[in-house]
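Appendix B: complex inputs.
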Amino acid sequence: MAEKDTKSLKSILQKPVKLECKDLYEYLKTRSADVLERLYDYPTICLAVYRELPEIARQFVIRILFVEQPVPQAVIASWSSQIYVKEHTAATAILGDLGVWRSAAIPGGLPAWELSATFKRNLKIALLGGGRPWTMVNVLDTDSKARDIAFLDNYAMSRWRCVLHYMVGGATKGPDGETISPDAVRILLNANLMKRDENDGGPVITRQGFQFLLLDTQAQVWHFMLQYLDTCEQRGMSLPECLSMMFQLSFSTLGRDYSSEGLSNTLLSFLQHLREFGLVYQRKRKAGRFYPTRLALNITNKNSVAISDDDTQHDKGHIVVETNYRVYAYTDSSLQVALLGLFTELLYRFPNLVVGVLTRDSVRQALRGGITADQIISYLEQHAHPNMLLHEHSIKSKSPLPPTVVDQIKLWENERNRFTFTEGVAYNQFLSQSDFITLRDYAQSINVLIWQNERNRTMVVTKNGHDDVKKFWKRYQKGGS
Amino acid sequence: METEARTVDNKEKECSLLVIVLDTNPSQQIIRRDSHHVTQILDSICAFSNAHLMQRPQNKLAVLDCHHHGTEFLYPTPGRPLDIRQVDGQYEVFTLVEKTIKQKLAQIISDAPKMSGPCESLLAGSIAMALSYITRLERNRPLGTRINARILVVTGSNECASQYMTYMNVFFTAQKQNIVLDVCALDKSLTLLQQGCDITGGQYLRLPQLEGLLQYLLWVFLPDPETRLKLVLPPPVKVDYRAACFCHRELIDIGYVCSVCFTVFKSPPPIAGKPKKKKVRQM
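Resulting structure:
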């Protein structure tokens, strides 16, 4: 009986592991200064890093980009207004962390900042010209079998869905009969998105895997590529080369072919991997050209909304959420159905439609699995059916979902936060009131008292303070009575 | 906490649109003094435009050229964009912007009709064209995104009070649409455009020397209006708000205002052809 209690208590206390999605800045912070120097030798990486900086930091960098000598820190501090001092310090810290600028001394003894020479040179090249062209832009004759953007989009999404299907379906084949390579499986296992099942040794999805599936496609691709880059050193590929290639792809133009001549062997195998995940399209392995797809573009930018004159809506939404908590999904893909089943209770399934309902139990079950209310809401928003955007309430507000449903999901999440847990040690069964009062006052004075009840003569002390209180009690007993 | 997350989210989804109105009227003093200044100004503008595009992938750019016979778009040009491949380490989009601007400007200059004498730059019209472009983009934007637009006028022309009415129209329209108007005066001080900056909340700068154009542009005009609050920029100049009279287009201190239609006159106008009631009001 007692065992079951402690087990259930432990499961409440242990928070489920959340999926950690790093952005570019966090990823680069973990690299050593040496690696960063090598990375900044590529104009693409400098450009990508520049775009990741916070607003004020970008202004500082562009101002001193054309200045040769180090600039005193006091001068830079005078550039931001007094009210925003906190942002200023945060910006300078980030620039230092990324190795974009370094401390230098100028004659006169004032501390100064100086842009890293490689970074400065390569950022200027990316902005103004000069230097060598990036690796993949040798002159090409026109492709006889050119592919248009719609084809590339289809290709990219079908390849990426294979990966996602694999995560959900395990070792079963995807809808087109395709499965993914052992390399990709290894990456998934490494990233803790899947784990080896104890019973049959086959890979099975983990909680983080479910959270991964609920992210939007761009975030998924970025997270996956970060995991891939973590393993690339082990394969013998140089990290700066691969990272630079990835950024070159992200800065390319959609629908245009690029040459794969002159790429080193490691980069060619990297290209093949990207082809498998759907980031580039190549007609044949030996073809001298490839097309970057939409997945590769703006890979580091999680929120790029393309306000272009051509609005090609790839991946129309298919979910309708009603104010009576019913969810209708016009899809027949088992992946989408599995994802919906994570947090809704599925009621009916038709050839082209799945009906579910958001109940307290279904949402709580998802919350227990580590999925947050925000993830559920953003998943529903992303895949909202175009008709939902025509409703009155969504024109006024930004979200296409009914506000009642959104609020209720958040309330269900907050219900789980009614308790705060602190571990402690309980003292009770005091013989006399005065003993209790002395001990309680002592615990209060060293700030370890959590709770006390004078009537019952019970008090709770933090775990760390327990030793001190015990020692005091022993001394008091010896000394007093 | 939720509102914080939302504001960060919204900032990412915002697109910052910069429309540059470049005055290339050959009658300008700086161009007549030394025609190489045009190349210098053009290079600085290209570098500045690319710096703006470099800030965020969502940023957009348009460049208009105000010539003596009309206004044309330098970037983006109608029709298909040029097919540009990289020739050096510059990012493709930046190379495209530079090449398009330079090619189109060369075409405009070579196609321009001959000038009989020095003539004014039609800047007010160019600003109106810029406003129409911004409105069209706003109308076509995808749901849930916001466009922050601003217009930068780079000019070396003198003050032209003959365009007073058009200027005022354009300034108040920009103010209504929340479009910020910045002005970079290369040569003389421009009081009318100063008024425009003051009305819309933009920056006015008169360059002390032409050589530092790029640096001044990057320092003062690159940050968008929200970021400008966080930085220390040149303080606003005291603006000369004198109105121009409608008959002679002269700036006046004291004048006559019709109480019906508020037209401003330097001296009492003839009764015929004008509204009957007149009131003298000191300015």
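Residues 305-314 of chain A have pLDDT under 50 and may be disordered.
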